[in-house]
Amino acid sequence: MKVIVELYGATKDLSDKNFLEFKLKNKVSIKDIKKEILNLIDKKFKGNQNYKKIINNSAFCSSKDNIVKENYIISKNEVIGIIPPIGGG
Amino acid sequence: MLHAKIIYSSKAKIQIKKAESFLSSSKFGAIIYFIGTVRSFNDNKKVTGITYDSKDTMVLKSFKEIYKEAGNKLKIKRKSVFIEHVKGYVPTKAKSIIIGVACEHRNEAYKLSRYIIEQVKKRTPIWKKEHYGNKKSLWLKGISLKK
Q1: Domain of A41: which CATH number?
Q2: Which residues of B have a CB under 8 Å from any CB of A?
Q3: Which residue ranges make up each domain of chain B?
Q4: Residue B97 and residue A88: Cβ atoms within 8 Å?
Q5: Which of A61, A69, A86 sits opposite B142 (nearest CB)?
Q6: What does the pLDDT look like over B30-55, one tens digit per residue?
Q7: What is the mean pLDDT of residues B133-144?
Q8: What domain range includes position A49?
Q9: Parallel, antiparallel, or unpaired for β A79-83 and B45-54?
Q10: How many helices (H) and strands (E) does chain A have?
Q11: Chains A and B: how many Cβ contacts under 8 Å?
Q12: Rounded Cα gap, residues A80 and A61, in angstroms
């Protein structure tokens, strides 16, 4: 299935689009997506440690705008978001 | 009564007169405005501006939750709140956020204003990319919302 991860804040540096797209098996969790993103950093950004740290400290949100845990199973065609550490105001 | 909005800097500016107009329509006499602006120095670096990014739907959801919670936690039921936060590039000294509150008494208004800005800082998905005089820029570190 196709999973789209919307990028926000510092994670926007991972793509010139505002999202990442992964084609994965069915029944994928946030933990799996996180692994995919870390793999992408290894391949595309020579394992940039700063990017990896951001991903490891990021939360993820469901299409219903709820922060979800790593064992959250992503529904088919669900668009999720990555929420790096925040600091507005 | 709550007004919550994200203002795209490419289209409009945050204006205190909008907050004044909104809050003056309430019946409450104690009104406080908190205005956040972009400072020109941070960590000994000259800042030329900040680009704000946000997850808009979650930002508005969090503003509503904070407003509702303030009623329960601070026991301030009768209130009017105006919150606008900018998205996009903002030069130094320009406004990034306005929080206007109107309550029956000043003690409640001070408490509520402080509560809202502290909660926005802790939980509202907004990010800052600082731009410097040397044309470099940096996403600022923040608070993790990871569960």
Answers
A1: 3.10.20.30
A2: 36, 52-55, 57-58, 61, 85, 96-97, 117, 120-121, 123-129, 139-147
A3: 2-96+104-137
A4: yes
A5: A86
A6: 999 999 999 999 888 999 999 999 99
A7: 92
A8: 2-83
A9: unpaired
A10: 2, 7
A11: 86
A12: 6
B69-107, pLDDT tens digit by residue? 998 999 999 999 999 999 999 999 999 999 999 999 999
Specify the number of domains making up chain A: 1
Least CB-CB distance to A87: which of B61, B127, B147? Answer: B127
pLDDT in tens, A18-74: 999 999 888 899 999 999 999 999 999 999 999 999 999 999 999 999 999 999 999
CB contact under 8 A, B97 and A89: yes
- Model confidence at A88: pLDDT above 90: no
* CATH class of the B2-96+104-137 domain in this structure: alpha beta
Count Cβ atoms within 10 A of the Cβ of residue B8 and give its class: 0-12 exposed, 13-18 middle, 19 or more buried: exposed
Q: Which residues of B19-30 are buried (b: 16+ CB within 10 A; e: fewer)?
A: beebbeebebeb
Token reading at B92 = 């130094």
A29: which chain B residues are within 8 Å (Cβ-Cβ)? Answer: none
| Cβ-count burial A53-88 (b if 16+ within 10 Å, e if not) | ebbebbbbbbeebebbeeebebeeebebbbbbbbbb
Identity at B92, one-letter amino acid code: T
Residue B135 has pLDDT above 90, yes or no: no
CA-based R_g, chain A, Å: 12
B86 within 8 A of B7, measured Cβ to Cβ:
yes
Residue whose C-alpha is closest to residue B144's, from A82, A48, A5: A82
Q: List the structure tokens of B115.
A: 């509560």
